[in-house]
Amino acid sequence: MAVNFEYEVWLVQEDHVTFVNGRWRGPGNPAKMRGQDVARALQECPLMWDLLNEKGREGWELVEVVNIQSDDATGAKAYLKRARGS
Which residue, of 17, 40, 50, 64, has the greatest Cβ tally within 10 A? Predict the structure, then answer.
């Protein structure tokens, strides 16, 4: 019997998970933030290792982490999977 998986893709900035499957994990609307508001909101996003531990208890497995870099920022994308029904 084939196993079906579900996936999550995280955007990680400064050790904080800022987006999961395109959804913002911090307070407020990041599209409307500037300067210090962005920095404060980033610090309120979950820390990667805390979220990894939480997700691990829910059956999620970290598959890969890829470093990313743009003109504006650096960070990483983390890819997780778990068997459907976990």
Answer: 17
DSSP 41-82: HHHHSPBHHHHHHHHHHTT-EEEEEEEEE-SS-EEEEEEEEE
- CA dihedral 18→24→9→1, nearest 10 degrees, is 140
pLDDT tens sequence for the chain (86 residues): 788 999 999 999 999 999 999 999 999 888 888 878 888 999 999 999 999 999 999 999 999 999 999 877 789 999 999 999 75
Q: How far apart are CA 74 and CA 72, in angstroms?
A: 7
Q: Is 19 helix (H, G, I), strand (E, B) or coil?
A: strand
Answer for the pair 19, 25: CB distance below 8 angstroms, yes or no: yes
List 68's β-bridge partners, or say none.
75
pTM: predicted TM-score of the whole model, two decimal places: 0.86
